[in-house]
Fold this protein.
Amino acid sequence: MTASTKPTAPSATDVVLEAVGLTKHFPIRRRLRTLFAPRRAVHAVEHVDFVLREGRVTAMVGESGSGKSTVARLMAQLIHQTDGQVLLHGEPVRARGRRFRAYCRRVQMVFQDPFASLNPVHTVRYHLTRALRIHGSDTTAEELLTRVALTPPERFLAKFPHELSGGQRQRVAIARALAAGPEALLADEPVSMLDVSIRLGVLNLLRDLRDRLNLAILYITHDIASARYFADEVLVMYAGQVVEGGSGEAVTQHAAHPYTRLLIASAPDPDRIAGAETEVADVGGGEPPSLIEPPTGCRFHPRCPHAMARCRVEAPPRLAVESNGDGPHWAACWLYDKNTVEGT
Ligand code: SF4
């Protein structure tokens, strides 16, 4: 695998979708005996900021429970945020009405399990023509299938989901998302349930759609190796917060945050960065923290081999990481604060 290359540099004007201080808390239902106790919540996503640009893929990487799928659902407005905003071309998204329906057309989601997202009793033709009718599109089902490389389309139109392979089902799910004529695709682990042999084909399809349709794509994954291959920008999530971000090359080749280094070292990547194994041994694996009572300061401090006294009390802001010529790069880690003296 080689890293994704996209020649044009992004500009501020090509932002399609933006998350500003996006926060989601899920309240925990109280039992009778704790009815008068303070209400507790799972702090699933906190103060997440990022942009999706047209013709670019942004990967959001993290382990299970890090909050990345919740971010995708918030961006799709399948659930509503506790705080913060989602902006489409700078305009806040409305929760209902005509503007909300327009938002749903322009921002489409591709789910992890294509079998669950397609109705087993309906044919491919039904799924696609229904989506086209709902969105008032004059595209045909045949054109959609051709766009996702299911050709000749006549071979697939009359098939039911169970008659397709996993990769073909995911292509149909992507074709259905394209029926709306979206500007942004939110792909939540789109290849993790597919055989390894067909994952690359689906990622290549998404990359091709990025280029041909100028789509802004959010690619949610736990696999940092695929993010390196596929994404223009990479964001790393840990315990509900984004802890590192930058160009795909910068984050995957010169990871700065101790958690990102742990992720890379854990990935079965033959090109593994030298020395990363030592980092895993240092961190000793460890468990992600409780999101009901997340750690104070830096949420990674209970697992971090570099934790300092201030890490336990002060949450680090985004700090610039010295560039290796790979583009902008930042990490939410006190190690990159110029005033930090290790061990303090
Ligand atoms: Fe480790 Fe401190 Fe950086 Fe958090 S802020 S990752 S605890 S060094």
